[in-house]
Amino acid sequence: MRVGLVRAHAGPPGPSSTTTGTQQHVARVAAELSGRGHDVRVYERREDPELPDTTETDGYRLERVPVGPSTRAPTASLVPYVPEFGRWLIEHWSGEWAPDVVHGHFWIGGLAAASAVRETDIPVVQTFHSLGVEQLRHLGREYTGPGERIPLERALTRAVDLAVAQSTDEVNELTRMGLDRAAVTVVPAGVDIDRFTPDGDAEPRERRSRILSVGGLAPGHGQEDLIRALRLIGDAELVILGGPPADQVDQYGEARRLRELAAQTGVGEQVRLVGDVPHEQMPAWYRSADVVACTPRYAAAGRIPLEAMACGVPVVGYALGGIADTVVDEVTGRLVPAGDVRALGVTLRRLLSDDARRFAYGHAAVDRVRCSYTWERTGGALERVYERVVRLRRPDAEV
């Protein structure tokens, strides 16, 4: 099968960052599908004029589309270039190679993909990765997305054949936006179980218990809840990964706010802000923790808890989004009501004081990831999705 994967943004320059983003997700999907024998091409906007038009990597072809500014740009600034992106795709799919199915990623990539196949019989699948309406609901005034995102995402739901959600919460949100339930399926992201394992090096640590929080250093990621919960936990270290590079953390407004909160709460010496680290180092950081805490106000996918679980570390998280789907309460970790700082602190304190329970949760977590959340399973699920939409559009097609 010929598969076109469309995303708007190129991968970030330099080393990979703490968390897995849309670009890394698409690259891994492309490699997995290629390994299953499909002819895969990834299309992204050119953001570096020094790079070649085409690159062959991991069994698939990466095409850089020359639309918009030749530099990284805010998502909102790319909306005017969507029609041009779509026209470029139409032109390149009118020759000897045309996709059997197109898969858009994020809302800008999806708009370009839908624009390109509008007058063809090529089916389009869409993964939003996050939804503006859901972010707005959970983040309120701290939501920073462009104003046109939400109406454009609603329009996109009417233009796709099928939407791939990454959590049960996202399925519910998409149906509220107008998609028929039969046109939505859940395909969670996978985990590299060769890299994320319980065995291997661990980052150095103090003797006291370590709670690890991973994510962007920005309002809405819930680090303030963890800082407040420390008062109920006792002598434990809270290590926060993500955000700006380590040498710039002290200049970052959110970092200063969290440090001030920790000082006011009386736990200043228990909080450590590390900043961004290469994703390749994340297994060692997970292994160094007694518990990984996932407390964002919004979580479309459950990548961070899955990575932690693959390393044999129990997760305490808010019962929402991808966290609620991936963490099995009292089996691989604990789920607490979102925003309930007291329940969060009490749960963490009890788990940190119970070595046997953490050991049992960690073993169950590894089994759950290896059985249900490998990239091989993700690739197979997407393969079946593509076959389904191709048959719906072209019943006589060979897939």
UniProtKB/TrEMBL annotation:
Native organism taxonomy: Bacteria, Bacillati, Actinomycetota, Actinomycetes, Micromonosporales
Any one biological process term the GO annotation gives: carbohydrate derivative biosynthetic process
Alphabetically ordered keywords of this record: Glycosyltransferase, Transferase
Residue span of region Disordered: 1-25
Superkingdom of the organism of origin: Bacteria
Keyword Transferase: yes
Domain Glycosyltransferase subfamily 4-like N-terminal: 21-195
Domain Glycosyl transferase family: 205-362
Name of the featured protein: Glycosyltransferase involved in cell wall biosynthesis
GO molecular function: glycosyltransferase activity
